[in-house]
Structure formats: C-alpha cells, structure tokens
Amino acid sequence: DIICIGEGEFPMLDLMDALDKKKDYYHIQNLWVKKDSKVIKNPMRSSVEDLDVYPIPDRELYYAKYSNLRNTQTKSLLASRGCPYSCSFCFNKKLKEMYRGKGKYVRYHSVNRVIEEMQYMKNNYPLKTINISDDIFILDRKRAINVLDRMIETKVAIPFFCLTRSNLLDEVLVRKLKEAGCVGGWFGMESGNEKLRQEVLNKNITNEQIIKGALLLHKYGIKFRAYCMIGTPGETLENAFETINLNIQIKTDFPWCSIYTPYSKTQLVEYAVKSGFLDKSATNNPSGTIWQNTV
Fold first, then answer.
1. Each residue of 16-57: pLDDT tens digit?
2. Which stretch of DSSP H or E encloses residue 31?
3. Closest-CA residue to 80 (of 11, 160, 171, 143)
4. What are phi and psi of 209, to 5 degrees?
5. Which residues make beta-bridge pairs with 182?
6. Cα separation of 33 and 73, whole Å?
7. DSSP for 108-174?
8. If we measure between CA atoms, which residue out of 81, 15, 7 comes closest to residue 44?
C-alpha cells in the first residue's frame, strides 16, 4: 500500500500523525502510495543534515519482545550515513542521484552523540562487542580519530568491529583503532584482478593498497574480513583464482565470498546488459535474472 523512498524517520512520523488524526496521507513527501488503481509518487524531501536531531534508537521496542536480541553480546550503531564512492554493483550511486540537490548525502553524528550511545548500550544491556555499521567508519580520518580518542578518554572503549577501506588506512589511524579496542576491520576487495576491480566494479583501489592495508592490520593485531565476489560480468575462471590467491597473499583472517547478484538499475547491470552477459528483460523481472553465458 505504501513504500518509502529514501530515509524514513520523518515520513513515518508524518504518516503516523495522519493516521492518528484520520487525515489524508496521500501527499506525504518520500511516500509512494497506492490509491485505487494508481500509485501516487510523492517527491523526496531534503536530507536531514544534523543527525543528532534523532534520539538514540529505542531498542526496547524490540528487546521487550525478543529476548534473544536483548541478550546478544554484540550490538550495532550508526555513527554516520552515506558513502561518497560509486562502486558499480552498489545502490549508493543511485541513492546519491536521488538526493542530488537535496542536501548532504554523507553526514555524521557528533562525536559526543556517538560516545553517548555507546555508553548507553554499555550501561543498559549485555554487551561484549559493538558493531559500528557505517558504510566506512574511517571515511573522515580526523573525525574518526576524534571518536577513537574520546572512546579512550571516557573509558567507554569496548571491543568493536567496523568497515574500513584499504586506501584510507595508514599507520597512525590503524594504531589508534587498536588502542580504542578495534578487533575487526572489514573491507571490500571484490576481486583479486585489478583491471576488473577498477574498470568494471569501479572500486578505485589497487592491489598495492590492499596489500599495504592488510599489512598494517596484521601489524597491530586487528583481524580483518575481505569481502569478495565471483561471477562478476566478464570474470574468467583465472580471474576468480586471482581473488583466491590475493587472499592467500595477504593472509585474510575471514575471507568472505559472495556470488554476484545483478540488482536492477545499478551501473553494473547496465554494463552486463550492454556486454551481452544479461538479458535485458531480466532486469525488470522481480523473481530472478537470466544470464546469457557463463564464465
């Protein structure tokens, strides 16, 4: 009946208010609403640039009902929203286009707010590790170091995981991650073939940067997961083995390999169709996709 385009906090609030007051909700920004046989596609509102206007998530909404969520030893938080990169297989490029002209796409919670939420979770729930779920926690190097310093100063430091990016890692930053309690630094490798990674996946990370980043993480005892995929349009069996070999070379602690899924409207699907790897009709088929040839 209703779907939300883009971020949903304020659209959901507007919808709940309208339902409570039995008012029309067909023209709420960000909502696409089914009315009779038509779909009303409302425009998107501007992004909320000050993320601190949102309260700390009310986890009790879930924990009161699902004790397994309350009792799990790992809890997650978001310290930022958005990713500036345009990897061809990812939704971010399309979402950035949707928000063009509507404010900042990459935004951050204040350092104090991040520490406050960590402290709240530490004081109120079973907690052994924190998963910082940002697309790239270390994206703004100066800010990341400020967060890490505050974690140390306030003694809120607790073992945590975060997503990194090989080309953004340096010795000072990795050492600071270690001091603040980082036990896992995940990053995307995608493919061991540099040409495929650069020209098809638009990852803009070299093998040298991946190797250098891995060496730093090993040096400071931070385990890492390398996200990889096979079945990328144009990949050969030899390319797939390059991915295996690069993981062996950098001694990946947790190699993670997925099979490429062609998500409609992404840049890589357009490339796959244009190159003859994917039937065009499959891009509008919600039940699956049809590959034209195997690799």
1. 999 999 999 999 999 999 999 999 999 999 999 999 999 999
2. strand 31-35
3. 143
4. -65, -40
5. 160
6. 39
7. E--HHHHHHHHHHHHHHS--SEEEE--S-TTSSHHHHHHHHHHHHHTT----EEEE--GGG--HHHH
8. 7
Sequence-separated (6 or more) residues with CB below 8 Å from residue 38:
none
| 285: pLDDT strictly greater than 70 | no
Provide the pLDDT for residue 287: 44
Which has the closest alpha carbon to 151: 121, 124, 126, 125? 121
Cα distance between residue 285 and residue 56, in whole Å:
39
Q: Closest Cα to residue 120, out of 57, 184, 53, 73? A: 57
pLDDT of residue 294: 38
Residue 14 CA to residue 292 CA, distance in Å, equals 45
Answering whether pTM is above 0.70, one says yes
Does residue 175 sit in helix, strand or coil? helix
CA 198 to chain centre: 20
Rounded Cα distance between 249 and 210, Å, is 11
> Hunting for tokens 């040839």 — which residue is that?
293
d(C-alpha 265, C-alpha 218), whole Å? 38
- In the chain the first and final C-alpha atoms are separated, in Å, by 40
3-class secondary-structure state, position 107: strand
Residue 143: phi and psi, rounded to 5, are: -65, -40
- How far is 47 from 80, CA to CA, in rounded Å? 13
- Give residue-wise pLDDT tens across range 112-170: 999 999 999 999 999 999 999 999 999 999 999 999 999 999 988 789 999 999 999 99
Give yes or no for a contact between 229 and 257, defined as CB atoms under 8 angstroms apart: yes
* Amino acid 156: pLDDT: 86
How many residues does this entry show for the chain? 295
Angstrom distance (rounded) from CA 189 to CA 239: 13
Q: Is 135 exposed, middle or buried (0-12, 13-18, 19+ CB in 10 A)?
A: middle
